[in-house]
């Protein structure tokens, strides 16, 4: 029996590559491998390719679920008699919920594995998405029920991106993380294409409820496939987070007070905050903008074309950033270059959007702005791996919490501005200014030097 136990401690879980000096804890049959400065846990290439595909798909379905409400906002506002301010309140409720679970999701992912956190969260938001149409007819005001459902959806989906960041930090080789994150980000753009194309057709043919049902069903199918085929061992045990946290040696725990005193960390947080809040606002209101400015335009054109452009630009950004780093360019310089494209250059086309009255020109401006924004996947989103790989999920959770809160404020404020001014110029101008402020701070203070080295306190 002792020999069997010894062998168990020396054998890594199926499908993982174990390198020396990894600390392993066993909780309720689940082997949890912790990463410290001298160790990493990597997926072998075939498994990494399979997981990359599955994570891309679930991100695609998540964005269908997330954008179902903005796509249907005009129809819902007309059916339920919502004003612009009330529509902005419903859309913005998502970000209230999104604020609360970011750090929790990142911490859990760093401890038990982001793939397991995703397997727990995905069926939850799938069910919430599918029952959203039912909540409109339960006897309460649709404005109340829809706002609550958006809040809960945001809370459940808040763990998603911190989990992806944690997975990338723990399972992907350092020189391949830029392309991996850019590939996973393509799930966002595929989701936008899917909901913009298929979702718009479903909206026209079968009504707005079908858009929500479709996203929920696809996500539940994904959960079943991953649970049956890719996850070994129990998904989660109640004591796993507590035990795994105590299995981490004192010398490898992160001193968060030390981490948050670093200017490079705050530059990363502020830049991500500015980028995400402007991006969330743009994505939330673009369907309404095109509906009002170009009422005779086909929905699928402006809901699909920008995201078709985003797919190759995201992959290009990830490839070129990894290539530049392999060629000897400074990592910090590469991150800043990518972020300048994502925020500075994209802002030029957001401003141009204020000046155009042509549908073709408007679609072109939005497409270029969205395409350039994908370089963020190789900029600030990757900088968290450079600065603090051992707690990447939790730190990204902190960043996304701040971004979700400001995103909520900007989405709601934008609805109010549009209603009182009856103009989109002010909104787009504010988004451009926020972007320029964020990228300036990152260029001045950002760095790629690792600052999460264990601090003994």
TrEMBL record:
Swiss-Prot/TrEMBL keywords: Cytoplasmic vesicle, Lysosome, Membrane, Transmembrane, Transmembrane helix, Transport
GO cellular component, one term: lysosomal membrane
Catalytic activity: ADP(in) = ADP(out); ATP(in) = ATP(out); GTP(in) = GTP(out)
Compartment annotation: Cytoplasmic vesicle, Secretory vesicle, Chromaffin granule membrane; Lysosome membrane
InterPro entries (UniProt xref): MFS, MFS_dom, MFS_Na/Anion_cotransporter, MFS_trans_sf, SLC17A9-like
SUPFAM superfamilies (alphabetical): MFS general substrate transporter
UniProt cross-references to Pfam families, sorted A to Z: MFS_1
Transmembrane segments: 53-76, 88-105, 117-136, 179-199, 211-231, 265-285, 305-325, 337-353, 359-380, 392-418, 424-445
Keyword Transport appears in the UniProt entry: yes
GO BP terms in the entry: ATP export; purine-containing compound transmembrane transport
Membrane topology, as annotated: Multi-pass membrane protein
Domain of life (superkingdom): Eukaryota
Molecular function in Gene Ontology: purine nucleotide uniporter activity
All residue ranges annotated as the Major facilitator superfamily (MFS) profile domain in the record: 51-450
Principal cellular location given in the protein's record: membrane
PROSITE patterns: MFS (PS50850)
Similarity section: Belongs to the major facilitator superfamily. Sodium/anion cotransporter family.
Protein's job: Voltage-gated ATP nucleotide uniporter that can also transport the purine nucleotides ADP and GTP. Uses the membrane potential as the driving force to control ATP accumulation in lysosomes and secretory vesicles. By controlling ATP storage in lysosomes, regulates ATP-dependent proteins of these organelles. Also indirectly regulates the exocytosis of ATP through its import into lysosomes in astrocytes and secretory vesicles such as adrenal chromaffin granules, mucin granules and synaptic vesicles.
Protein name, entry field: Voltage-gated purine nucleotide uniporter SLC17A9
Lineage: Eukaryota, Metazoa, Chordata, Craniata, Vertebrata
């Amino acid at each position: 029996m002792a020999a069997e136990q010894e062998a168990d401690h020396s054998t890594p879980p199926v499908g993982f590559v174990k390198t020396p000096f990894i600390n392993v804890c066993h909780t309720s049959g689940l082997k949890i491998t912790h990463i410290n400065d001298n160790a990493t846990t990597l997926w072998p290439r075939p498994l990494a390719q399979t997981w990359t595909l599955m994570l891309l798909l679930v991100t695609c379905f998540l964005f269908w679920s997330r954008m179902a409400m903005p796509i249907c906002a005009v129809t819902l506002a007309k059916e339920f008699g919502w004003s612009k301010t009330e529509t902005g309140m419903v859309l913005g409720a998502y970000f209230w919920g999104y604020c609360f679970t970011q750090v929790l999701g990142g911490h859990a992912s760093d401890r038990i594995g982001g793939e397991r956190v995703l397997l727990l969260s995905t069926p939850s938001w799938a069910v919430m998405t599918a029952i959203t149409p039912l909540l409109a007819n339960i006897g309460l005001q649709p404005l109340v029920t829809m706002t609550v459902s958006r809040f809960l959806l945001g809370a459940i989906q808040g763990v998603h991106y911190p989990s992806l960041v944690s997975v990338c930090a723990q399972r992907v080789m350092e020189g391949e993380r830029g392309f991996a994150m850019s590939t996973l980000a393509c799930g966002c753009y595929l989701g936008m294409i899917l909901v913009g194309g298929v979702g718009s057709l479903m909206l026209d043919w079968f009504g707005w409820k079908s858009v929500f049902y479709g996203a929920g069903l696809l996500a539940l199918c994904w959960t079943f496939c991953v649970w049956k085929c890719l996850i070994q061992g129990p998904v989660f045990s109640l004591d796993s987070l507590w035990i795994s946290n105590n299995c981490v040696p004192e010398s490898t725990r992160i001193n968060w007070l030390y981490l948050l005193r670093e200017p490079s960390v705050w530059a990363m947080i502020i830049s991500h905050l500015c980028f995400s809040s402007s991006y969330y606002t743009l994505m939330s209101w673009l369907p309404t903008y095109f509906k009002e400015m170009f009422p005779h335009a086909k929905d699928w054109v402006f809901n699909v074309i920008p995201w078709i452009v985003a797919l190759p630009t995201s992959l290009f950004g990830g490839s070129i950033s990894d290539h530049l780093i392999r060629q000897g360019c400074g990592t910090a310089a590469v991150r800043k270059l990518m972020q300048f494209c994502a925020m500075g250059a994209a802002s030029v086309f957001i401003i141009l959007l204020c000046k155009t009255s042509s549908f073709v020109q408007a679609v072109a401006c939005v497409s270029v702005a969205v395409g350039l924004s994908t370089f963020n996947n190789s900029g600030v989103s990757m900088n968290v791996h450079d600065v603090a790989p051992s707690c990447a999920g939790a730190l990204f959770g902190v960043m996304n919490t701040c971004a979700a809160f400001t995103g909520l404020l900007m989405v709601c404020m934008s609805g109010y501005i549009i209603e009182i001014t009856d103009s989109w110029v002010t909104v787009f101008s504010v988004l451009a200014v926020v972007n320029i402020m964020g990228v300036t701070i990152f260029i001045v203070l950002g760095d790629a030097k690792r600052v999460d080295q264990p601090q003994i306190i």
